[in-house]
Design a protein that fits this description.
heterodimer, A: mainly alpha, 2 domains, B: alpha/beta, Rossmann fold, 9 helices, globular
Amino acid sequence: MSTLYPDVTTVSRKIQLTDEEDKQLRQLSQVEHLPEDVLLRKWILDGLTHMRLERACTLYQRGQLNLSGAAHYARIGVEQMMHELTRRGIEHSPSVEQFVDGLETLADLFDKDGLRAAAAEVRKQEGLQPHKDTQPS
Amino acid sequence: MNKRNAVLDASFWINAHHSGVVDYLPDYFNLFVPTQVIQEVEYTPPDVDQLTSAGESFRSWRQAGQFECQDPVRPVDWFHAGENAAIGLAQEQGYVLLIDDQAPYHLAKARGLRAIASVDFIVLLYADNGLSHDEARARLAKSGPASHLKRAAAIALAVLARQRGDRDVNLVS
């Protein structure tokens, strides 16, 4: 048990720093008015957060995680995960094909011929396969 | 108009909230939400004090009984808990799936489910005169889809504008 975190079990890790790194740590500790071990712990936690998020984005991009899986991995909300993916230019919106499928579904559900025509035009302009029901026989 | 039963996924709600179209959903759908999706939308990370605006509005809707909480008997085992529950419920009950996440959307479609994205819903609102052309464009911009999707949606809006005779609309996007 730790006196700092009485409810959790803690472990100690030993790290090695060069003289220069050690000097920088001491300087920053003085500037920030924080003990060196507190600073080190903060940086490790920040680093873990950053690494989890980067890994989650990579796994999403590879198709190995979906949005909520990636959010869970990164320990953030789905909305923040969507924001992080967008910020990195990683596509998460439905594809054009999926969008057109959705229009056709809505056209069928609510009997909207206009939507059907709109979907057909998007298919044509985007070079997608015609919908199976509208293909010439 | 006959309302359809639909199950909400977190991704759809978040985008629909940001594009300002969630209030139109009950005009078209009886909404069902699995517990896991509720937990995802209302999740607050330990180091964050408050819900996001999408989470806040979702919670208000839930507390006001504007959608029904329903869980599948057997969630699928394809993705993470929220999508698995939403897809499982859509499959069991024959509900429409409202989802904006590319990979589960793809698999759900491949398995014969009827899936709709928030961008589709915005186009439907324009088709039904619920939104003007400018409003539809503005909401598409707010929903934050990628440029390829915005272009495709603009084509759909242009076709509908021609049908509606919106002559003052600039059809070239």
